[in-house]
Amino acid sequence: MKERSVSDSTAGVPAMPAVSERVRALHAQMTLDEKLAQIVGYWLDQNGVVAPMQSEMAAGQKDAGQLVDVTRHGLGQYTRVYGTRPVDPAERAAWLWEEQRRLKRETRLGIPALVHEECLTGLAAWKAATFPTPLAWGASFDPELVHEMAASIGDSMRELGIHQGLAPVLDVIRDPRWGRVDECIAEDPYVVGVLGTSYVAGLQSAGVHATLKHFVGYSGSRAGRNHAPVSAGPREIADVFLPPFEMALFDGGARSVMNSYAEIDGVPLGSSAEYLTDLLRGRWGFDGVVVADYFAVAFLEVMHAIAGGRGEAAAAALVAGIDVELPTGDAYLAPLAERIRAGEFDEAFVDRAVLRALAQKEELGLLDPDAFEDEPPSEIDLDSPRHRDIARRLAEESIVLLSNDGILPLAEPDSAPSRIAVIGPNAHRAEALMGCYSFANHVLAHHPGFEIGFEIPTFLEAFEAEVGGNADVVHARGAEVEGEDRSGFDEAVASAAGADVAIVVVGDQAGLFGRGTVGEGNDSETLELPGVQRELVEAVLATGTPVVMIALTGRPYAIGWALDGERRPAAVLQTFFPGEEGAAALSGVLSGRVNPSGRLPVSLPRAAGAQPYTYLHPRLGGASDVTATDPTPVRPFGFGLSYSQVAYGGLVVDAEVTAGGSFAAAVEVANTGTRTVDEVVQLYGRDVVASVTRPVAQLLAFQRVRLAPGQSATVRFSVPTQRFAFSDRSMTRVVEPGDVEVWVGADAAATEAAGNATARSTLAVTGAVHVLTTAGPRQATAEVEASAVASDAASESAGAEVYSGGAGVR
């Protein structure tokens, strides 16, 4: 990508994108109807509700028997041919190959359709592997593993003839009450950008285009309400919401972007040329395709009321820079054609979009003469051993140990329980392990007669397999995820009273638009656990039996009572929808087979009334003696315990660096425990004085490091000063000269006094103010130099079933 001019501002005529001669020649042959057909999708046999206002917007939808009429002028995209209802993958692939051949054979220009699908937690299709939700990616702090996951998803999609994936979500979490938090990666823009970029690179390595969403500001909605207005100022947009998109475009090479449903200061993003054209294409030089979020073009009329009809909405979206209307052509077909033929809209804007859409098809090989001449796959494994191995490792790395008084791991030889009660609404439900955009919760919920289609043991099943015959496991549901029914409390209490340990699995059910407790449209007024789940935990605690609480959720809840209350569980684990291998991963952590290494990608809130909150707050955003409310989270961003002990020391930071350059920081980390540990080393910094207020702590870099017992390592970071960049008073992104403090901490709130951070070093940023360009480095790099491991320690491995280690320590 390169910065370039995108429009002729004097004439008001859009500049045409640079395309190949083949694309230009194809476009020159097109009638208006054929052009419009190339910039819309068609949603075949849609059923159920998987998009906002879908039932209202689907009027006039035609069935598969009318495809010849629907596609008589060609077709831009097929919407979710695998992901709308449960279809056998091989049978659907055979249909799709024949349909593409028909389009080549029977339409005048012979252009195949691009096929897009959702792929946020894996390909959203029946029988396809389901990976941990993006919030769990954030908890892993492992970009390499996210890249590996995305590449495996992309391989499955390409095998099925899918060309574009509607992921990743790069919205920065601002308010955990928002229902779509489980689709997001973190509250830190840098973590979102690094992991999101890894996902893009992985997916596109398989030849599938990634789509960045939702551009931009969507997660900043008022009170965490879906589709609510966004009141973010331009500095917050520039410094918080935009950086992940910039990283994914420049460092990941993303080829598609989807607009946000939001309106910022009264302007819907679907009609914003300032963002979709001036910024995205003008300043950033993006030359890919912008697609509409489902029904977003029509929403300019029916939800935002800035257009008087579908044709007017289409004109506003096209001028702004939305190239392709999804999921169908509600606005870009007949309503837009009518305006053009009446002389009310310039067809040049259609030409601009068509050229981009055709260039994308060319890039994906759809314009090649031999496209779809091969045979479709006859045997397809969408949940292969490779998929499951990646899902297992990512789930294991994402589990966060929040507290532990010594009860964990349960497999300690001197204290292993012989009778264990497994209680709670999420203890024996496979659906509880999967996010909102998993096929099971997104689509299959509308088809109760179908099995999930792949192996996904519940926590109870996985835990029974983990302990084998070494413990007697009893189960009681106790309560549902939602509702006020307490009739199961007595059974749960009796089960706990007769056990040595009670494991209570609470949390969410992901779903959409009122079906479930978290997910798209399932926003919350409170951050208390849904239903009567807190009461259930407290009833079990009252038995006196030691309790391990597992929060299996899609958002962080206000569970300070379980962490710091007078009567609290002996241990608390947080996991964010860990996918098909999540139950086995949790069981491994409980037994000690897995040493927990996840870190909170979002602050654990004290109360709903303290929201919105982010650890990236200026001094006035924290606790103070001039207000009676305390926004301090009960566990900070980056927090997580393990079964071992890690010591930090010897931080060395360059004394000075020129603004615009990079500085070095090195730290010693040592495993002083008896257990192999994966430590997430976190480098933080802050501006001492700046021209606008800056955060009291900001993550500059992070690196996972595996250390055997007794092993130490030196982690050397190279950090571009761009990590300290911000928008100054003139709204120019700059790095200012001056002193900055740098330290390594176990989390965002770690201090040297508490023993979980290094002493702070002062770094002088020298020279003139550095103005950022898109060419500057955006990511820090790290090198790890580990010491040799003594032979007796080397025999200990992360897979040991029984070990002796510290409780609730790093």
UniProtKB/TrEMBL annotation:
Database matches in InterPro entries: Cellulose_deg_GH3, Fn3-like, GH, Glyco_hydro_3_C, Glyco_hydro_3_C_sf, Glyco_hydro_3_N, Glyco_hydro_3_N_sf, Ig-like_fold
Cross-referenced SMART domains: Fn3_like
Tagged with keyword Endoplasmic reticulum: no
Protein's UniProt keywords contain Hydrolase: yes
The entry's keywords: Hydrolase
Pfam family, one: Glyco_hydro_3
GO-annotated molecular function: hydrolase activity
Gene3D superfamilies, per database record: Glycoside hydrolase family 3 C-terminal domain, Glycoside hydrolase, family 3, N-terminal domain, Immunoglobulins
Domain Fibronectin type III-like: start-end pairs: 679-748
PANTHER family with a match to the protein in the record: BETA-GLUCOSIDASE (PTHR42715:SF10)
Family as reported in the entry's similarity comment: Belongs to the glycosyl hydrolase 3 family.
Protein name (record): Glycoside hydrolase family 3 N-terminal domain-containing protein
